[in-house]
Amino acid sequence: MKIAISGKGGVGKTLLAALLSKTFAESGYSVIAIDADPDSNLAATLGFPHSEKITPISEMSDLIEERTGVRPGQAGALYKLNPKVDDLPEKYSLEYNGIRLMVMGRIKKGGTGCYCPENALLQALITHLFLARDEVVILDMEAGIEHLGRGTAKVVDKLIVVVEPGRRSIETAYRIDKLARDIGLQNIAVVGNKFRSQSDREFLISSLPNFEFLGFIPYDQAIVDADHANLPIVDASQQVITQARNIYQTLLSAVQTPSPAN
Amino acid sequence: MKIAISGKGGVGKTLLAALLSKTFAESGYSVIAIDADPDSNLAATLGFPHSEKITPISEMSDLIEERTGVRPGQAGALYKLNPKVDDLPEKYSLEYNGIRLMVMGRIKKGGTGCYCPENALLQALITHLFLARDEVVILDMEAGIEHLGRGTAKVVDKLIVVVEPGRRSIETAYRIDKLARDIGLQNIAVVGNKFRSQSDREFLISSLPNFEFLGFIPYDQAIVDADHANLPIVDASQQVITQARNIYQTLLSAVQTPSPAN
After folding, report:
1. What is the Cα–Cα distance from B232 to A107, expressed in whole angstroms?
2. Which of A68, B76, B83, B247 gives B67 a disulfide partner, CB atoms 3.0 to 4.6 angstroms apart?
3. pTM, two decimal places
4. A216-254, pLDDT tens digit by residue?
5. Contacts of B152 (CB under 8 A, 6+ apart)
């Protein structure tokens, strides 16, 4: 299963990506978590040590050509091979707590260009990656809508849009939904994050009447405190972990993939 | 004066852009507020009616060539003219409460590309725009760091990074600072937003010891409520407006531009 997590900046995309990675890993899945946001830090959120050792996907051009028969960016070519996950060289990922982490690209020097080439490579990788039944890819996308213009995540099985109780994140969810449909992505769902009250929850539900809700994550001061203390926020709150587990269950029944334990 | 507002997604860039636009306008400046984030809505934050009538900067290619003698994207050409603000055709902006609003580009169809061309045009416009002493341009930039790779805001007089009491927004501030210096932008300052306590404030100050703080904006439930009720959040909280006024004063003394009243 390939899952992408999108939404307005600051809504908690990276937290959800980390929570789902952890939950899938604990349930017996092989997880590839991909940090596709150059202004994010999925590694730190998951508590990875030495994530700077990972060679980013943006330096995988030769490998992708070798495995797929296609030079990234080249149009109309035939795809010869499906690269398998357990085939990906170790140097492009780092494993910790059963999660293999990959990163899209490094932060570049100011003024040296956009992230279009990195996005093209990431798209090539996730398009051609052949997953076994017990393997899952979780993509933490860049904030906002530009990646949908680029179509980076167009082959995922599920696009999760994270929203918080605020009108701007709702507006972004509608934009993402529209843009995702433009690129043929139909399987979209939302997760509500940082709700503080029943009325926050109702605000989200009434603002997004035609969306599938996978679940809700409460605001928890323990997450904020862990962040300030520079501890992995993914482990900070039991109630948040419990809600992530519920979201995982809903997600599995929604996409009807049998769990590897079955 | 040309000011760009940057920061992690969700920290309150658009709120600060709107507050400063309003404060400068009320102090007698001619304000051009530019919404440079396709996933933002500066118009709604400022309470603009009918913002959909604005022709975006991305459709100004011919005008920029005519006024500057340079086709946007063309390198090494000579700049013949400086376009003046009061010369810009009405159709590219909408005026409301003394603020002229421009937008970088419309939301495009999913899969049709990135925002590189729009950023190139915006950069051309703000580079060549000749401002009178009582004119100010306020740019609400896209979340994150990609616009610094593109160098969109490299000619501004001041880059303001908005931070909130959370480690991720601090990390983004450091990344922005580094990338901005790569493109020759030295005049960088921060504004702390959404602080709820003295310890939030101290967390921000101690996390960013070498940064110039222009001021702090408190968390205010009135802003959240106005957002939920779909009212212009720029008018929602008197204490926030007061702090914006302090930031405006600090900004003026920092860049030593005489106010138009002098």
Report:
1. 35
2. B83
3. 0.89
4. 999 999 999 999 888 889 999 999 999 999 999 999 987
5. B36, B119, B122, B123, B141
